[in-house]
Amino acid sequence: MHQILRFASLFVFTLPAFVGCQEGRPFLSHQGLGGRSQTTTLQARQLQERERRLGQLDQDNLDLQMRLAQDQQRTQQMAEQIRLLRQQLNETASLARQWQQAKQDADKKVDRLTAATRARGGATIRANRSGGQPLQMITIPGLEVRRDADVIRVALPADQLFHSRSSQLTPVGVELLDRVAAVITRNYSDHHIGIEGHTDNAPLVGGISPHQLAAAQAQTVLKQFSSGQRFPTYQMMTVSHGANHPRVSNATPMGRVKNRRIEIVIYPDRSS
Length: 272
Description:
Number of helices: 5
Number of strands: 5
Distance between the termini: 159 Å
Order of helices and strands: HEEHHEHEHE
Strand content: 5-15%
CATH class of the domain at 128-270: Alpha Beta
CATH architecture of the domain at 128-270: 2-Layer Sandwich
Structural class: alpha+beta
Mean pLDDT: 81
Strand order of the largest sheet: 1-2-5-3-4
Largest sheet: 5 strands, mixed
């Protein structure tokens, strides 16, 4: 009986300790859940940061593609300008060769005539290769005509000849060119004629350069002069100066208007 009482007492003292150990385990379990929650939050933040960086990379890639497309467009425009300039240079070189050939043929005719005259003992005729006698001055109402060394220059405002910033003649421009051609025919029918295109320095739309516009305008005037068999093409040549030779400053609108012009140049050399 005494041993039974001792065993019962030992059980009573041992039971609270056992219960206390079991109650402590849930507490430890809660601590484990809290650590996993913090780890999940950190991983979510890392994932958001990766997504943000990926989005920034996508935006940077779009910006690069846009700049690349713009560079490609500018490259194409420059290539087209180079092509047009080469075409203009080839046309100008061809006209210059034709003019030079015509001048050489004319000089040969004069030389043959001079030799024949000397053989007959008559008066000597000399070729006028340096201008010799100055050209007769002319006047055209409403236009500026001036002497420049041994040539005569007639300035025609481009704003009267062409539609704005183009090489298309206006009705007034056609009438003005016909009037100028009539005066030249009366006074310098067989002289070489130069057609010079000039512009201001204002930028042009569509990637067109001032030289390209001036060249196109000069070619239009040449076609108008050669229509109706007034002047043969070998008697004329075109030159594009672009904005390189302004008459006045381009700082004012009136100055730019004066610089946009076609100049008809009459040379003392004859084509026949």
